[in-house]
Amino acid sequence: MSRDTIISLLWPNSEPERGRHALSQWLFLLRRDLGVGDLVLGGNDLRLNPERITADVIDFDVAVAKRDHATTARLYTGAFLDGFLLSDAGEFERWVDRERERRHREAVAAMESVARDAEQTERAAALAMWQRLAVLDPLSGRFAAEAIRALRDAGDHAAAFAHARRHEDILRRELDMPPSPEVRALIEELRVAAPAAGPLAPSGDREPYIEFVRHRLGHTFTVERMVARGSLATVFDAVRLADDAPVSLRVLAPDLIARADPDRLLSLLGDAARVRHPSIAPLGEPTRLDGLMYVVAPRSSGQTLRDRLDAGEPVAAAEALRVGAAVATALSHAATHGIPHLDVTPRRILVGDMVRLANLGLMHAFHASQRHGPTDSGLALGTPAYMSPEQLEGEIPIGAPADVYSLACVIFHSLTGRPPHAADNSRRLIATRLGAAPVSARDSGAKITPDADILLARMLARSPADRPPIQAVAGELSRLAGSASR
Question: Which among 70, 233, 328, 398 is least surrounded, fewest beta carbons within 10 Å?
């Protein structure tokens, strides 16, 4: 690497002369402290002396150059410089991101080649490699399908079902998407071939956690079944013993509560529960009891926008804009109370005669009550396919502009059948989200007017300051929905 490139990476804000001096001093100290005079070779272009220092990344690059796929696969044990941070060196961080993505791509290609070759001679080795690929790219439907097929062919139908379940859970959590048609077809094939293996969806009644909740809250509720498990809360259908009312019981994730100020969390949830609007589903009053924190709301019926999208058909333009307008109106009302949503996804939108936005205030309460910043906790709070760039980067505070971005992603998904910047793994998703320009829904197949396309592009602006305010979005979407329905 040239001296100028190294200086730009490590001392990007230094004057050229000072940068050159810093690099020379650094090389001198390395040689002196390690007692190796020829550690670094070259004049203007520098390289490590391979006779003095070795590194797995060098061996990896050599194997890639030689197209030695087996060695490449063996040497790759994780992301390049994973967890390494050099403060105040933005160019270095961007270089690391590029190198990390390149080496990941090269490793995946090598592993796939090894797996294909092994399928002809050593099926157990092929299975192990497909499973490893599925771990490296857990959102990839292609690798999930190959691993499921390999497990099926090995006669382990239970493991194939378990793998499909994990893949489906990750897709729901990370992208809010169903499995690919290829994976769904394999699931149905396995069900027909081995119906005794049971359903793919986890049986909530046998989950240890539901027994734990029943034990703690049994004097107040009859907990019937687990409905959904998310990163923030687990949702149960329950009956309140005091009045036999069917309710939806959201038990907040204990690991998140442990990272929060519980009194502030309870207060913020109470503020959100008191927001009333026809397009906002009640959150329910929060309660802290026996080490658990939960909210209780009336049990809702009907389907979510996620259920509609699972059918695989894009929503009509007038309907997508109508739903978007109702959600924007709810978000605008909540913004007057200082409460952003921060997790607007198709799962949070109840559709039918009335459109209602669910879980208002839940994500905001977790963000605002954490004892450390959102990125310090090591937790990814949100659904990456719909999160704004500032959320992905861990910026704080985060407010209504993030909801504008997420709502645009939901409308885009409704119109085209996929979110903008869709990708088959979270690394690529985040990279495109942070680097790509706003996308055109019309260019992606949406049958909408140029005005609607321009509005969505503005809502998807990279910078929060470039997005229209949520109040203006609500009015414009209402106007566009009215025009589209005529």
Answer: 70
The Cα–Cα gap between 357 and 323 comes to 10
Distance CA 207, CA 401 (A): 38
Residues 6+ apart with CB under 8 A from 348: 304, 341, 357, 358, 359
Where in the chain are the domains? Answer: 122-197, 204-298, 303-485
Q: What is the pLDDT of residues 281-302, one digit of tens each?
A: 988 889 988 778 999 988 877 7
Report the distance separating Cα 371 and Cα 365, nearest Å: 12
Query: Is the Cβ–Cβ distance between 138 and 132 less than 8 Å?
Result: no
CATH architecture of 303-485: Orthogonal Bundle (1.10)
- What residue type is assigned to position 150 of the chain? A
| Matching CATH number, 204-298, of 3.40.50.2300, 3.30.200.20, 3.20.20.140, 3.40.50.1100 | 3.30.200.20
H/E element holding 152? helix 141-153
Q: How far apart are CA 217 and CA 202, in angstroms?
A: 22
Beta strands in 333-403 (DSSP E): 349-351, 356-357
Q: Cα(348)–Cα(306) distance, rounded to whole angstroms?
A: 8
- Residue 115 has which token pair? 């797996």
**Single pTM value for the model:** 0.69
Max avg pLDDT among 34-48, 57-71, 154-168, 192-206? 57-71
Q: What is the pLDDT of residue 378?
A: 39
